[in-house]
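Risk register update: the risk of archive-format incompatibility is retired. Evidence:
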Amino acid sequence: GNDQTIVDGDEAQLQGNASNVVSVAWTPSGTLTGANTFSPIAKPSVTTTYTMTVKNTDNCTSTDDVKITVQPYCIKVMNAFTPNGDGANDRWIVTNGTGCTNRVKAVVFNRYGQQVYINENYQNNWDGTFNGKPVPDGTYYYAITYFLINGKSVIVKGDVTILR
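Archived output:
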């Protein structure tokens, strides 16, 4: 089967095939369910290359490899930042940037429910401004949709405090 990329904690189904088969074995088998089938489920925590070995009725053996690349879980919302221009914590960080997302949508509201920020492809770049002016210090509320590389989406809601 094809090499795959998953997010840490996910699983991938391996796909092998052969004809006139007497035995099938995948290795390493420690992170596999169904290691003696053509389509085991792999749940590795680190990038792993699996080898399928098959033996046919003529006692011939063949092998093939598939690599499952594991991306670390990258969702990490900062609950506070200080956009005061000192170069430290000036931007709101919502992902650690390890590549487990295809896209991140971020929406931020003030305490009255007014939308003060929206970005359909957020890149950890909100500097605490609304219409080009700094928002007041305080607590703001967010809804973030993470579109993960595995095709799933995760919605996270919470609050972020701005301090200057």
